[in-house]
Design goal:
The protein has one helix at residues 25-30, and strands at residues 16-22, 34-37, 48-51, 62-64, 78-79, 83-87, 98-102, 112-114, 120-122, 127-130, 143-146, 156-160. The protein is mostly beta strands. It has one domain: Trefoil (Trefoil (Acidic Fibroblast Growth Factor, subunit A)), CATH 2.80.10. A six-stranded antiparallel sheet has the order 7-6-5-4-1-12, with no helix packed on it. It is globular and about 40 Å long.
Length: 166
């Protein structure tokens, strides 16, 4: 099964609502596509992987401005309009889980940079958003882990969410 994916490099010069899809080959081999998701619009809600082929939902619409003139340096990645991807308690350690939390542009726990190798790096650390243990099961909570160019569990692609395509 092939997927037409748009990388962050192809996003327009303004904020765009996209699905953040895993680049892990295991999803393609299983005939599904895994997307970053949060079930509810609530502080502390776990950030998980979800099969985005099953439905197109607002909980998979992430708004970002990567690779725009306005996005020099780390920035927020928003969902539900007012929540952002957040590192639980700001713990800089492999395996620290991710959640959503009310957006705060001064909160270092919510600062992300898209890197040219398709990783999403946490602020100025050496940690990236990671598919925990490479498990493609719905509901697997995402974590941060030391960034590695060769780690497929850290590859993320942006694609239009079907519920926003006209």
């Amino acid at each position: 099964m092939s997927f037409t994916l748009f990388t962050f490099l192809t996003l327009s010069l303004s904020a765009a609502a996209v699905q953040l899809q895993s680049g892990t080959a295991a999803f393609v081999n299983a005939g599904i596509q895994g997307c970053i998701s949060a079930a509810e619009n609530a502080d502390g809600e776990p950030l998980v992987i979800h099969n985005c082929n099953t439905e197109a939902l607002a909980n998979q619409d992430f708004t970002l401005n990567f690779f725009t003139k306005e996005s020099a340096g780390p920035q927020l990645i928003k969902v539900f309009g007012d929540k952002c991807i957040d590192v639980v308690n700001g713990v800089n350690a492999d395996g620290t889980k991710l959640q959503i939390w009310t957006c705060d542009s001064t909160n270092a726990n919510q600062q992300w940079t898209s890197v040219s190798d398709f990783t999403l790096r946490w602020g100025s650390t050496d940690k990236c958003i990671d598919l925990t243990d490479g498990k493609i099961t719905d509901g697997n909570q995402l974590q941060i882990y030391t960034c590695s160019t060769n780690n497929g569990n850290q590859k993320w692609l942006g694609a239009p969410n079907p519920d926003n395509v006209e």
